[in-house]
Amino acid sequence: MTAEEIYDRYPEVLYPGDLKGVPTGWLGIIDQYFQIVAPIMEDTGFELVTAREYGGGLDWTWTSMLGAMTHERHAVLDREDTLLELRSYHTCPVCGRRPAFGWQSGRKIATACEEHGVGERIEREAPMTRSTRAGFVQYAIAADDLVVVWTPKEEGR
After folding, report:
1. CA of 87: how far to CAs of 27, 56, 119, 146, in Å?
2. Prior bond to 39 cis, omega within 30?
3. Cα–Cα distance measured from residue 24 to residue 88, given in angstroms and rounded to the nearest whole number
4. What is the DSSP annotation of 73-108?
């Protein structure tokens, strides 16, 4: 997968140069993201603001015309943005392999597979968790999906 192929597939939501800060190994997860997001965001003024590696994960932000953001679109984007971010922490930015892990080399933290990791592998005590409208979620590598681990309804238990 190349950036040019992604630009060709999704010209309605991407401008040339939007992906210049994205490592090659993450282009596959960006393609997965746009398979879901591009059709619902067509003709909404969707525009990528930030797309780059930062602190071992994908720093990804976008903007759209306020009036175009329906409840349905916002819910889909909330889910897909979270999935994209968590996928980036488990996908090697060099080769695209999963699973990938955090690596610390000096003051730098990066994500990489065993082959491309440099420094000391970071062992997490607990999986990464993100807060979403559905509740708290974690990324399930085997299922390549988000798993809800807590919902607000469970608070009274």
Report:
1. 11, 11, 21, 10
2. no
3. 12
4. HHHHHHHHHHHHHHHHTTS-TTT--SS-EEEEETTE
pLDDT tens per residue across span 16-73: 899 999 999 999 999 999 999 999 999 899 999 999 999 999 999 999 998 999 999 9
| Beta strands at 145-150 and 135-140: parallel, antiparallel or unpaired | antiparallel
Tens of pLDDT, residue by residue over 128-147, are 999 998 899 999 999 999 99
Nearest Cα neighbor of 88 from 16, 20, 6, 23 is 23
Which parts of the chain fold into alpha helices (H)? 3-9, 27-41, 71-88
Task: Reduce the DSSP state of residue 139 to 3 states and report it.
Answer: strand
Distance between the two ends of the chain, CA-based, in angstroms? 47
**d(Cα 33, Cα 136) in Å, to the nearest integer?**
20
Distance CA 127, CA 146 (A): 12
Q: Answer yes or no: is pLDDT of 148 > 70.
A: yes
Evaluated on CA atoms 3, 86, 90, 120, the torsion sign reads: positive
